[in-house]
Structure formats: C-alpha cells, structure tokens
Amino acid sequence: MPRSGNTPRRLVADGRVYLWSLRHRHDTAADGRPSNCRETLTLFPQEAGPGRPALPIVFTEGPGRYVPGGAPLGSGDVGYTRGASLNLHEPGAVRALLDEALARGWQPGAQQREELDGWTLLEAAAAALDARRSETADS
Predict the structure, then answer these.
(1) CA dihedral over 76, 110, 113, 105, signed as positive or negative
(2) pTM
(3) Which residues, at least 6 apart from 77, have a Cβ–Cβ distance to it below 8 Å?
C-alpha cells in the first residue's frame, strides 16, 4: 500500500525526531501551463505542539535550476542544470539539508517566520550526501 502524501514522514537526527513533508506548487500561466514551480520541504521537531515552529526550505525554478513536477524528471528532484542535485523524497537528502540548516544556525523549536532559500543549502547538502554514500560504499 503506498504511503499517503499528506502524512508527514519521520526523521531521527542526533537523537531528535523530526517530521517532514514535501509539497510541489506552481502558478498557472495565461495559456494554462504551469509556471513558477517550487518545491517546499517543511521540517519541524516532532515534540512541538500546535502552531509548531517549522523550517520551510523552498526551491523555486529559475535560470540554470530545475524544479520539475514529474516527467521526464522525477517528482522531488531539484538541482542545477550543470551541477548538484537532490531528490527531496529521499530521507538522506532531507537529512543533509537539515544538517546544513543546523550548521547555519537554525534552531529547532525557535520560531521561523520566513522561508529558507533551498538553493543556499543545496551544494553543501549534496556534497555531504555524496560523501556519506561514499563512506557507506567503502565499508
């Protein structure tokens, strides 16, 4: 049975449990085609209650970047046309983005009023994920 897209997924990092969800959004151009595509990855500590502080990490399409909504590229794929990329459905990619956000000062439980531009995290997170995969392959 496939998992529900509306149910947040669990991620355990450094002894703390986070919930995360991924949403694809876009506007509709005058000709009916989608435009201004964006992927929003939202992370929040599981223990937080109602109105819980979340970390929304947003990837918007733009020159040299891709944020597809599906075919021919996979849902959740984001990246530079000539560079780093991540699949935001993969827990390892989400963990790498979380680690990078924490390294840059995000504090779980603190109110986050603005979205975080995912492009500022992508290259470092992709490099960390590649390094983690290499370590696993060498073991």
Answers:
(1) negative
(2) 0.85
(3) 66, 68, 85, 86, 87, 88
Q: Higher pLDDT residue, 39 or 48?
A: 39
Domain boundaries, the chain: 9-138
β 16-28/55-60 pair status: unpaired
Per-residue pLDDT of 68-101, as tens digits, reads 766 666 688 999 999 999 999 999 999 999 999 9
- Residues 38 and 58 sit within 8 Å (Cβ to Cβ): yes
What stretch of H or E contains 28? strand 16-28
Tokens of 83: 């560079």
Tell me the pairing of strands 85-87 and 34-45.
unpaired
Q: Contact at 8 Å (CB) between 60 and 67?
A: yes
Contacts of 28 (CB under 8 A, 6+ apart): 34, 35
- The per-residue pLDDT for 2 is 46
Q: Encoding tokens for residue 53?
A: 């502080």
pLDDT (tens digit per residue) in 101-130: 999 998 887 776 688 999 999 999 999 999
